[in-house]
Amino acid sequence: MSKTTTSARSGKQASAKQGSTMENTQLGTFFMDAVKDLYWAEKHLVKVLPKMQEAATTVQLKSTIEEHLVQTEEHVTRLEKVFELLGEKAQAKKCEAMEGLVKEGETVIEETTDGSITRDVGIIASAQKVEHYEISAYGTLAQLALTLGQEEVADLLKMILEEEKLADQNLTEIAENNINYEAEKEEA
Question: SS3 breakdown of the chain: % helix, strand, coil, rounded to 5?
């Protein structure tokens, strides 16, 4: 083999390693699968949140869900940016956890009285389960992105993480400030 061929091959290998550690390690593969999983989850929530909003009773909860829908659409866009930064095509992988949490939320809506404050309690509880899943997932992925040397990706994931924490806080405030107490007065 000539020196030129060997040099060219070494250069290609070096640049492939620099540009794509994601594909060359088990951790990188795990990370990409988890990003695809969250991408599916966020896209699914974009479809589900309007149904939750429609099922909600109080204006305050309806408004909070509307605000989070706008934020969730932004999360989808940010995840698409993550794929772009990693040189990957945006691709969703079904998130079994999110599908289960959404089904549980749908059951809560079906099993509570339409127009009741208790339904809002159930919607908040279901939404917070979703938020806690997302907080855990984004926190893990932000740290893994740093481990993999993907600081810009980590920054985007941390931004989403902080917004998910804020959404959870907003839901807690609504529940603790009035909805739980109003629901407690509803007759069976």
Answer: 85, 0, 15
